[in-house]
Every structure is written in C-alpha cells, then in structure tokens.
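Recap from last week: sequence in, structure out.
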Amino acid sequence: MAYLDAQQRATLRDELKTLKFNQAKGKLRRMDAKARLVLYRNSQQVGRWLTRYDLDSLGTQVTLVEEYHVSDNMKSEWKLVDVKVEPTPDNRL
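Predicted structure tokens:
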C-alpha cells in the first residue's frame, strides 16, 4: 500500500475530526491491518489525553487529542477536540 501524501493526510484529519473518539479509533484500525497503538490516553497535560496510532503501511502517525468537559448534570466527559496527522520519518511525500 502506498504512503499518504500531504493532501491525503489533511483529508484524513478533517474526516477524523468529525467523528467521536471510538469511531475515529475504529476507522484508524480498519485503515491499516498493521496499525500499532503507541499511546493510549496518555496524560501529557492537565485535562488532556493523547492516543497515538502508527499506521506503518501508510507512513502516517495519528494522534487523537481529548479534553475534559463537565456537562450541566455534572457528568464528566472526554471529547475529541483535535487530531494530528503526521508523516513517519520514512514517508518523504
């Protein structure tokens, strides 16, 4: 399978931003049979979780960023707020 170029990575980012976390996670795992989970809800900052997948067959690294929100009924929720799609070092497109 060919590596994703910059335009395809931007399209993937836009598609993933419209999805919920579990939907985005499922889409990434279906895209590449060799998808590897690097980080799962790792806390690098207060109130933010990062989940990172390496899609080796596509030459892409995808990071899903979730933030903590409190709803009106005091239920805590984590919402997908950003998606970072970056090329891997061996992807020069």
